């Protein structure tokens, strides 16, 4: 069976994704970001057009359930611009919901995630969950358990928000140790917010994908550390696990509203990556690695080991 990625317009061969923004948001709302909602379909379409003009062909939207995914508008924007969009199901931290979900609701999430991935009118292509600060609280444990069950049933990747970049090893112990997921089906987000390269290398040795995603985040000093971290991980043999994303979460961060937005990845970061490390690594980070990270695996299989080379 040929490897495919599930987009909002249907499954596409993984090797046709092209240049990928591996973590971003077209639509998003949260009580933690009052007045900063991403909820304008015209602006979302304009951002996708700007990304396409810079050479981008696929965006992976990590917005989970209950945070304004606006699935119909995502479909319309993808169709209008020709940019592939891979949409998430999943659940964020409890603070992003009013009221927060109950334990009983959390325990029922696996079926909801599986339906979103397999039978919803607009199907998701990955599951997004979130850890806590330097640990995994009960909410995170329950949502990750549901996400792992959804992975085992569907083969979808699980993308993890690491709070301020912390607890990647604890997350991997739960998902891949206790819950039996292959590390190659896990994408660790926000690693750059906690630039502990020793922990990053330990996480990389498992085979998990490592997402560095922060150019739009003015309150996180991620950019100046980024290239040192990428160099350390590539030198350690993990170039095949690196991903880059913009993680645009507010209207002001969009390129169409004066921020860096999605195009920044290709206008600024990709040329720098090419100058410093060569085109081969840039092609891995933006093209080949995402095609492996977000592929739908056959349920119950682990395609490969560490995957670092």
Compile the SSE list and pairings.
Blueprint: E1 4-7, E2 10-13, E3 20-24, H1 41-53, E4 58-61, H2 71-81, E5 84-90, H3 103-107, H4 109-118, E6 126-130, H5 138-154, E7 157-161, H6 168-178, E8 186-189, H7 197-205, E9 209-213, H8 223-235, E10 242-245, H9 264-277, H10 279-293
Parallel strand pairs: 3-4, 4-5, 5-6, 6-7, 7-8, 8-9, 9-10
Antiparallel strand pairs: 1-2
Can you identify the CATH class? Answer: Alpha Beta
Counted up, domains total 1
| Rg on CA atoms, Å | 17 Å
Return residue spans where pLDDT drops below 50 for at least 5 consecutive residues. 302-309
Principal-axes shape call: globular
Family: Belongs to the metallo-dependent hydrolases superfamily. Phosphotriesterase family.
Organism: Streptomyces mobaraensis
Modified residues (N6-carboxylysine): 128
GO molecular function, one term: hydrolase activity
Short recap of the structure:
This protein has 309 residues and is an alpha/beta fold.
Structure description:
Belongs to the metallo-dependent hydrolases superfamily. Phosphotriesterase family. Pfam families: PTE. This is Phosphotriesterase. Keywords: Hydrolase, Metal-binding. The strands form two sheets. The protein has an eight-stranded parallel β-sheet with strand order 3-4-5-6-7-8-9-10. It has a two-stranded antiparallel sheet with strand order 1-2. The two termini are 23 Å apart. It is of the alpha/beta class. The chain has a single domain, classed as Alpha-Beta Barrel (TIM Barrel). It is globular and about 50 Å long. 38% of the residues lie in helices and 15% in strands.
């Amino acid at each position: 069976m040929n490897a495919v990625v599930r987009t909002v317009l249907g499954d596409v061969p993984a090797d046709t994704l092209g240049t990928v923004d591996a973590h971003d948001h077209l639509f998003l709302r949260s009580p933690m970001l009052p007045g900063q909602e991403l909820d304008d379909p015209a602006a979302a379409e304009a951002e996708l057009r700007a990304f396409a003009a810079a050479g981008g062909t696929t965006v992976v939207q990590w917005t989970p359930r209950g945070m304004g995914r606006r699935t119909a508008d995502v479909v319309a924007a993808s169709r209008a611009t020709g940019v592939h969009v891979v949409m998430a199901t999943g659940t964020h931290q409890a603070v992003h919901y009013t009221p927060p979900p109950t334990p009983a609701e959390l325990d029922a999430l696996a079926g909801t995630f599986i339906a979103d991935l397999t039978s919803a009118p607009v199907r998701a292509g990955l599951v997004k969950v979130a850890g806590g600060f330097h640990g995994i609280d009960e909410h995170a444990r329950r949502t990750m358990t549901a996400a792992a069950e959804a992975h085992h049933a569907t083969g979808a990747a699980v993308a993890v928000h690491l709070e301020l970049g912390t607890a990647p090893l604890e997350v991997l112990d739960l998902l891949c140790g206790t819950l039996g997921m292959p590390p190659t089906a896990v994408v660790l987000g926000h690693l750059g917010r906690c630039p502990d390269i020793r922990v990053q290398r330990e996480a990389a040795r498992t085979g998990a994908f490592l997402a560095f995603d922060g150019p739009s985040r003015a309150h996180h000093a991620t950019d100046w550390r980024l290239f040192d971290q990428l160099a350390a991980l590539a030198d350690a043999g993990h170039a095949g696990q690196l991903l880059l994303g913009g993680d645009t979460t507010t209207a002001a961060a969009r390129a169409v509203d004066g921020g860096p937005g999605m195009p920044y990845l290709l206008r600024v970061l990709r040329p720098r990556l090419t100058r410093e490390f060569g085109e081969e690594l840039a092609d891995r980070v933006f093209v080949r690695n995402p095609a492996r990270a977000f592929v739908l695996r056959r349920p119950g299989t682990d395609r490969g080991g560490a995957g670092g080379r």
